[in-house]
Amino acid sequence: MNSFAVIVRYLAPFKKYAFLNIVLNALGTAFSLFSFTMFIPFLDTLFNTNSGVVADPGKFEWSYRSFMDHFNYQVYLIGEEHGKFHALLFLGGAVLFGAFFRNFFAYMGSFFMAPISNGTVMQFQRRIYNKILDLPLRYFSESKKGDILSRFTSDVQEIRASISGSLDMLFKDPIQIIVFLSYMIYTSWELTCVSFLVLPFIAIVIGRIGKSLKDTSGKGQAAAGEMLTIMEETLGGLRIIKAFVAEGKMKERFKKINDKVYRLQNKIMRKHSLASPLSEFLGILAFTFILVIGGYLILVKGDNSFTSSEFIAYLVIFTQILNPAKDLARTFNTIQKGMASLDRVNAILDDMSTVPEIEKPVRINDFNSSIEFRNVSFRYNEKYVLRNINLKIEKGKTVALVGQSGSGKSTLVDLLPRFWDVEEGEILIDGINIKNYKLSDLRALMGNVNQESILFNDTIRNNIAFGVESATDEEVTAAAQVANATDFIKEKIEGYDYTVGDRGGKLSGGQRQRISIARAVLKNPPILILDEATSALDTESERLVQDALVNLMKNRTSIVIAHRLSTIRNADEICVLQNGEIIERGRHDELLAQNGTYKKLCELQGFGN
User: Fold this and answer.
1) Of 136, 208, 341, 522, which is the most exposed, with the fewest CB atoms less than 10 Å away?
2) CA-closest candidate to residue 532, choices 445, 373, 413, 377
3) Can you name the residues that pair with 584 across neighbouring β-strands?
């Protein structure tokens, strides 16, 4: 039960609430026992047996027997002085008294259970989210987004149910069973020992169902993740699906996984539903067994160790053990489902592929001299994407990377902020390997403007000031001016408080890109990475964005991935990549004079001089 131990570890910050919950549940169970033991004097009074009355109970002592002796004697006196009906009224009031406090303490126990259950889930969600932010990009290139979202949503909800069940198993049900079982042993330990011979059989049956449920639940959650992946891909690619008339294909693809989830969920629900009726039947079996054995002892053997009314109360108390026992059976199956989900969540939480940081990293606050790629090679799995890259970029220079798609340009720039880690060779900034720098310091030196403008469903102001907590309105406005974004912002009624929509969908491509540039301007990084920042724009938007980029690149060290070669003719150095290697380098005019790959690329774009 390693997964169960993980849940218990999450309870540690809430031990104060756990203690209160245990105390309140114990009090509630004590009053519950008090209510049910009132059956003994009630039956004695009703049938006029008074078998439990002690003529002289003596001095009161703090024990169950002394309490019951004095209580029964008082009931007897009330019956003798005021009549049996008044004694029954008194006992009815005692039952109500016990029931009130039983339910009051049960509610208070649930009151303090809420922060434990919700707080534990909160920790899980926070850890998953933080882990997602810490994992390298390699992890997400090899994982399905839908499956990750499924683990964060449906799997966490299964864990929530499992945690609630675990808390009941830890704090509530065991207390009830222990208290009621103690009373049964006190009343007749021989009968209790005999009656509980059937419990191992019940535990084995429920355990087998639980193990099967865990296996099936794991498959069901994985299938639900696949279904969520298809939904996420459909929403993102709806335009392409319609354009290629592929609705039928996608419907069939979804139908297959939807049917698979349907079949697995049926199995899960049926196995889960089996626990309650099966445990109830087994409980009735145990109850009948006790009824027969107890009747035999009283009627046949003439056992005088307990009276008929005490035996009836004994049976009533035993039924109260059945309820928490059945709850434990249902809870056990819920926990098994939760354990399957927890295993899937732990696959993320326990992943060790985070970008490592040395114990005492070097702090860096500014960029002073150069960036150097020294004998850098990199591969995804077995295939090399970069081979023996040697490149030095002096401070204040602009270096452009060109080449066909898949030549390694984006991978090369992703190595600089350590989105991926170099496997062979090293990257140095100011002569120090970037692995020795504090990761947050390293990334603070850089600003990114990508081909796909990544905006958040927030205001224009907050998107520009993203990552710069202390930004003033004046600084945001100044950054927007540098990015040529003020004209379209002023057209919005809300201005900088205009919400851009999901992924910036309420803005045009050029507007989104200029917001991204304004964000980079506000960060004011000494190193700038531009990844095909204008390739997806129309001519007018490209001109506005290109002007904004020129403003952004002033007095900065820039690495530019260029799709349109006309945008990088003034770069200090142009590197042509092919199959992960730099095959040509130089200024624009020098590369044209070489009459090589760069010139062919220029000619293909109608840009040859």
Assistant:
1) 208
2) 413
3) 576
Instruction: Provide the H-helix boundaries in 427-578.
Output: 439-444, 460-464, 473-482, 486-491, 509-523, 539-553
Q: Edge to edge, what strands does the sheet with 527-531 contain?
A: 446-450, 527-531, 557-561, 398-403, 573-578, 581-586
What is the DSSP secondary-structure string of 188-225?
HHHHHHHHGGGHHHHHHHHHHHHHHHHHHHHHHHHHHH
Please, are residues 14 and 119 in contact by the beta-carbon 8 Å criterion?
yes
Cα–Cα distance between 198 and 206 in angstroms, integer? 13
d(CA 176, CA 170): 11
State both tokens at 82.
């005021």
Sign of the alpha-carbon torsion through 449, 453, 458, 461 = positive
3-class secondary-structure state, position 472: coil
| Position 270, amino acid | R
| Residue 23 CB coordination number (10 Å) | 16
Tokens read off for 504: 């910036």
User: What kind and span of H or E run contains 130?
Assistant: helix 84-134
Q: What is the torsion angle, in degrees rounded to the nearest 10, for the CA atoms of residue 165, residue 171, residue 173 and residue 174? A: 130
> Of 163, 35, 37, which is closest to residue 104 (Cα–Cα)?
35
pLDDT tens digits, one per residue of 109-163:
888 888 887 887 788 878 888 887 777 777 776 666 767 777 777 777 777 777 7
CATH of 370-604, one of 1.10.10.10, 3.10.20.30, 3.40.50.300, 3.30.700.30: 3.40.50.300
- CA distance to 102, 455, 459, 502, per residue, from 499 (Å): 53, 10, 4, 9
First CA to last CA across the chain, in angstroms? 71
Longest dimension (CA), the chain: 123
pLDDT at 176: 78
Burial class (CB in 10 A: 0-12, 13-18, 19+), 498: middle
Over residues 229-243, mean pLDDT: 68
Q: What is the pLDDT of residues 387-425, one digit of tens each?
A: 999 999 998 888 989 888 778 888 888 888 888 888 889
Cβ-proximal residues to 380 (8 Å cutoff; 6+ apart), any chain = 138, 141
Give every CB contact of residue 295 below 8 A, 6+ residues apart in sequence: none
412-439 burial: b if 16+ Cβ within 10 Å, else e: bbbbbbbbbebeebebbbbeeebbbbeb
**DSSP classification of residue 353:** -
